[in-house]
Structure formats: C-alpha cells, structure tokens
C-alpha cells in the first residue's frame, strides 16, 4: 500500500491524470490489449475453427448497413469468418510480435550500448560504426533482408512453424541501434562520475558496475524509447505480413487481415480491410501518444 500511495502522489501520476490525451490513449491501448489477450474468451467466434465456418455467410456486411446483422457486427470475410473475431485474434499476434521484437531489440541494444559506452576506445568505435552503418538503411529493408536470409537458410517445411520467431528476430535486429546509441550516450556520462569511480576503487567488476550502477540511471530514456518503438515494431510486422513475408496465414496478424481485405477493397467489400486497418491505427496511435506523454513527463526541463 505504501508503494501504491507513493505512486498515486507522484509527479508522474499527476502528469498522467492531468493530461487528457494520455488518459484517452491509455484507455484505447487497454481496450486493444484486453481484447487481444482475452480473445479466446471475449471473441464472439473462433475464426480459425474450420468446422464452424460457413461459406454461405461470406461477405456479410457490417451491422450498421442495411443488409448487415448484429451476429457479425463488423461483417464477414470471403470465407465467412467474423471480422471482429479475426481482428481480436490477429491483434494477439501483432502484440506478441511487437512486444517480443521490442524486448529483443532492447536487450541487444542495452548490451551493445553499455559495452561501448563503458569500455570506450576501439570497442566503442567499432560497435558504434556498425550501428551507424545499419542506421543508414530503413528498418523495414533490414527486416526484409534478415527474413529473406532466414527463409533461404532454413528448410521450407519449417517456414510456417518458426515464421513468428523469424519476424521477431528480423524486427529486433533492425531496431537495436536506437537503443544502443541511447544507452551509450548515457553510459559515457555516467562512467566518469564519482560513484562509478568509487566502485572501481573497491574492486567491483566492470559487468557489475554496468548492470547495477550505470544501467539504472538510463532506464528513463530506455522506457520512453521502448514505448515509442513498440508502435514501430507493430507497424513493421504489419508491413511484412502485408507483403506476404511475415507471419503465416494460419496465424494471421492485423497486417495479414489487411492484405486479405485488400483483394476485395474495390469490389465493394471494404469492411474486410478497413476495420483491421482502423484497429491497427488505434493500437499504434495510442501507444505512440503514450510514449510522447511519457517522454514529456520524464523530461525534467519541462516540469
């Protein structure tokens, strides 16, 4: 209760409850997360249960249209799957890939950034030049390259089984330089401070100094960057899936649903692509707005 009371009276929570944009974004993000995580419980149907599909229900319009039915509020797709249920299940895959890819990029970036910033010298020069070279390429191209190399190196029969893991690694590798440069800059500042010098004098090992002394002082910028990067990771996964090189059709994400609906967009069945697209926009926009608020709230110059 003491920790909760301190958080309730903290500057961070005061900033949150006095910022309408942050509150609305948090509510939208919470709805998206709960709907995705609890999809097996909350979704009206299981869109991937082939036994429950009926082709006679294909292309039913949304309930708000004259021929629609509230049995399928967002309509159905070309296979008779409920679009609302497909969005909820697809959001699970998008969130899983986005969170996992961001965590992988964060872990790799922190490791490289701490090593470069604390060690300095040749190690810093080599690691940062690698990061600089990668930053000259768009993240989506790096993700496409990693995905393509992985698919060429692995047996074809394993592609669908490990496709999600390949996408996570591909997006994570494309985003780690951002974390590495942030951590490296903070580590360069912290490594010459008195508490770090005192730890060196008493014989504390460099790995322990980096993890227990330097890393806690860079968590604020890392948290902001991770929040902003989560939206980008979700968008990258959607882009890869839209291009047909992301998750397999048996585990469709929002990007896959948009790609499927795109084939029927100009034939009148617009809801198959529009509603997954709106769900993707709501998820990414809410996360990005929360990241913007968090960046401002943790910036002491704006207090």
Textual characterization of the structure:
The chain has 13 helices and no strands. With 303 residues, the chain is mainly α. The chain has a single domain, classed as MetI-like fold. Helix 3 packs across helix 5 (83-119). Keywords: Cell membrane, Membrane, Transmembrane, Transmembrane helix, Transport. Residues 91-291 form the ABC transmembrane type-1 domain. Belongs to the binding-protein-dependent transport system permease family. It is found in: Cell membrane.
What is the compact description of this entry?
The chain has 13 helices and no strands. The chain is mainly α and 303 residues long.
List keywords for this structure.
about 300 residues, mainly alpha, MetI-like fold, about 0% strand
List the helices and strands and how they pair.
Layout lengths: L1 H7 L2 H7 L2 H18 L1 H4 L40 H37 L1 H15 L3 H15 L5 H32 L3 H8 L4 H9 L4 H24 L11 H9 L8 H27 L6
Helix pairs in contact: 3-5, 3-13, 5-6, 5-8, 5-11, 5-12, 5-13, 6-8, 7-8, 8-11, 9-10, 11-12, 11-13, 12-13
Family: Belongs to the binding-protein-dependent transport system permease family.
Keywords: Cell membrane, Membrane, Transmembrane, Transmembrane helix, Transport
Membrane topology: Multi-pass membrane protein
